[in-house]
Specification:
Layout lengths: L2 E7 L3 E8 L4 E4 L3 E2 L9 H15 L2 E8 L2 E3 L4 E4 L12 H9 L3 E5 H12 L8 E6 L3 E7 L2 E2 L14 E2 L2 E2 H5 L1 H12 L5 H9 L3 H25 L3 E5 L6 H15 L9 E4 L6 H13 L1
Parallel strand pairs: 1-5, 5-8, 9-14, 14-15
Antiparallel strand pairs: 1-2, 2-3, 2-4, 6-7, 9-10, 10-11, 12-13
Helix pairs in contact: 1-2, 3-9, 5-7, 6-7, 7-8
């Protein structure tokens, strides 16, 4: 059985583990913090360390990378990373791994990878036309049509975080970061997303209102996506979507209220089945398809 190092690079952390060729996890590594403004927490430094540690115990058949940023999947290069990850644009991840370790490597955008993971092993099995959104530090998107990821002429298809909603970037008003900042302004104290939902469930009206405003912004984007693409499904992922029981009825109600007519509202809204593993499993699926 072949083993693969699967790596999911986000805005502030790296998830990683060893997976077999069927997408089953063999070993999970601890979450690794990154900060591309600090040398010792640099993404490439962390990535090299992960490979070095992995090959001590596992003969790797490949390194499969899912990463935030705009990726050219042909060259395995991060061709653009926005303000959420400084000093990351033009990073040739595939070249770095293959040159330093002589191990084949494939790289895909993190949301595209998550979408592929859901198609292979998750909530999109049997569905060929869908949109995936991950809501976290920013908002990422992926478009699946005919069972294949649509990259666009400049590899930026699905970059929904930059969609304009009332003159602001979608991800600046509808991401987990936006929720955290809003609650911090109201309460003059920092809480993480999980704490905010816990307080809302305990009746904190300020948190309830902040979440409601977040969902209002989020569903504005979802309705626009439904109008434009009319996909079979929209899959919602990212850490905040673990609050499915709280968010799902709110999301469905607001979409039904916003949309022009119920005949437009036939897209299934679902939640990522693979949770935090979606990017890593999708990175492996991408590797298998490209090698």
């Amino acid at each position: 059985m072949n083993n693969y190092l699967c790596v999911d690079i986000g805005g502030t952390t790296i998830k990683s583990g060893i997976y077999d060729e069927n997408g089953q996890v063999v070993l999970r590594y601890p979450l690794s913090e990154t900060n591309n403004s600090i040398a010792e927490l640099n993404i490439v430094t962390r990535l090299k360390y992960l490979v070095e540690e992995s090959i001590k115990d596992y003969p790797l058949s490949g390194v499969c990378i899912s990463t935030a940023g705009v990726v050219n999947p042909e060259t395995g290069e991060v061709i653009y990373a926005g303000y959420t990850i400084p000093n990351y644009s033009n990073t040739p991840l595939k070249q770095i791994i293959e040159t330093n370790f002589q191990i084949p490597c494939e790289v895909e955008n993190d949301v595209n990878a998550a979408c592929l993971g859901e198609k292979w092993r998750g909530s999109l099995q049997g569905i060929d036309d869908a949109v995936c959104l991950t809501v976290g530090t920013g908002i990422g998107g992926a478009i699946l049509q005919g069972g294949c990821i649509q990259h666009g002429v400049g590899f930026t298809a699905g970059e929904v975080g930059y969609l304009q909603i009332d003159g602001e970037n979608y991800q600046d008003i509808a991401s987990t970061s936006a929720l955290i900042k809003k609650v911090a302004r109201i309460k003059n104290k920092q809480y993480d997303g999980k704490q905010i939902f816990e307080m809302a469930l305990n009746g904190d009206n300020e948190c309830i209102q902040a979440i409601d405003e977040l969902v209002t912004a989020l569903t504005t984007g979802l309705v626009n996506i439904i109008y434009l693409l009319n996909p079979e499904a929209i899959v919602l992922g990212g850490g905040i979507m673990s609050q499915q029981a709280y968010l799902e009825p709110l999301i469905l109600k607001k979409i039904a209220t916003k949309i022009e007519d119920k005949r437009f509202n036939q897209t299934k809204i679902t939640f990522a089945a693979l949770k935090n593993d979606a990017g890593m499993i999708g990175a492996l699926y991408n590797f298998k398809k490209r090698q």
